[in-house]
Amino acid sequence: MTNWTKIDETVKKWIQEAGTNIRASFTRLLSIQAKSNPNDLVTNVDQETERFFIEQIRTEFPGHRILGEEGQGDDVQSLEGIIWIIDPIDGTMNFVHQQRNFAISIGIYEDGVGQLGYIYDIVHDELYHAQKGQGAWMNDVPLEKLEKVPVETAIIGISSTWLVNNRHFDQTKLVQLAKDVRGTRSYGSAALELAYVASGRLSAYITMRNAPWDFAGGKMIVEEAGGIVSTVSGEGLNMLSVNPVFAAAPGLHEDILKKYLT
Ligand code: IPD
Ligand code: CA
Ligand code: CA
Ligand code: CA
C-alpha cells in the first residue's frame, strides 16, 4: 500500500525548498529562451526547478515515473503506476515579466487517478493542496466546499484566445457569456486560475489548450473542493494530451456547459 500521507509530507518539503530557490533567483540574471515560438518562454529556473524535483523523486521514489513540461523526466506514454506530472513554473511569461502570478504545479496520479495535487504561489506564499478523498487546503486551512454560483454573479477566468475564432466554440455564445457574468479575469497561469476556482476567487476557468502539467495539480484540488473539471464539451480530461479545459463550481459548470459551450 502506498503511504500517501508520507509522500505528501515529503512533497511539501521539496516545494518549500524549490520556492526558496526560485525566490532567490529574482536577484540573479535569468537565461531566457524561446521554445515553439517567440512567446513560448523557458528560463534556466524552469529547467533547474524541474531537475530538482526529478532528482529528489528518483532518489526517494525510484519506481515512480515523471512527466515534466521541460522534458527532463521520463517518456510517459501510459498512465500505469505512479506518475508525477510537474510544471516547475506555470506562468513563465509572468515569472519573466512580472515576478508574480506564477506557480509550481504538481499532480501525482496512480493508474490515471489523482491522489495528490499541489499548486504553490511562491510570491504570496500560498500553497494549495489536495489529497484524494480527504479534501483541499490552502496553507493547511481547509477550503470550503464549493457551492452553486449563478451565472450573473460569477467571475470567470478566460484568456484572450477566446476572442479568436476556434473550432471548440460558437464565438457568439462566448461573447454572451462574457456579457452575462459579473466579470472576467485572465491571470496567465492555468494552475493559479484552477487554484482560484478551488478557493472561490474565481467561479470558473475556461481555456482552449492546456497540457497535462498545466492542470494535473489543479484538477485534483478543484475536485476535492467540490468543483467540476472537464473539457469544454463536458468530457473527462485526457491526462496524456492537450485538452480544452473547463473548471467550475457545481451548478455553474452545468449551466455554462448547457447554455454557452454546447
Ligand atoms: C502556460 C500558462 C498559461 C496558459 C498556457 C500555458 P507555462 O503555462 O498556464 O496561463 O494559457 O496554455 O502553457 O508555459 O507558463 O508553464
Ligand atoms: Ca511553458
Ligand atoms: Ca504551464
Ligand atoms: Ca511551465
CATH hierarchy, class of the largest domain: Alpha Beta
Gyration radius, in Å: 18 Å
Largest sheet: 7 strands, mixed
Order of helices and strands: HEEHEEHEEEEEEHEHEHEEH
Keywords: Hydrolase, Magnesium, Metal-binding
Cofactor: Mg(2+)
Pfam families: Inositol_P (PF00459)
Protein name: Inositol monophosphatase
Per-chain topology:
Layout: H1 4-25, E1 32-34, E2 41-43, H2 44-60, E3 65-68, E4 82-90, H3 92-97, E5 103-110, E6 113-121, E7 126-131, E8 135-138, E9 141-142, E10 155-158, H4 171-180, E11 183-185, H5 190-199, E12 204-210, H6 212-224, E13 228-230, E14 243-248, H7 252-261
Parallel strand pairs: 3-4, 10-11, 10-12
Antiparallel strand pairs: 1-2, 4-5, 5-6, 6-7, 7-8, 8-9, 12-14, 13-14
One calcium ion binds next to loops.
Characterization of the model:
The protein folds into 2 domains: 4-142, Fructose-1,6-Bisphosphatase, subunit A, domain 1 (Fructose-1,6-Bisphosphatase, Chain A, domain 1, 2-Layer Sandwich); 151-261, D-Maltodextrin-Binding Protein, domain 2 (3-Layer(aba) Sandwich). The protein is of the alpha+beta class and 262 residues long. Strand 5 (103-110) and strand 6 (113-121) form a beta hairpin. The chain has 7 helices and 14 strands. A 7-stranded mixed sheet has the order 3-4-5-6-7-8-9, with helices on both faces. One calcium ion binds at residues 69, 87, 90, 190, 213-214. It comes from Domibacillus iocasae.
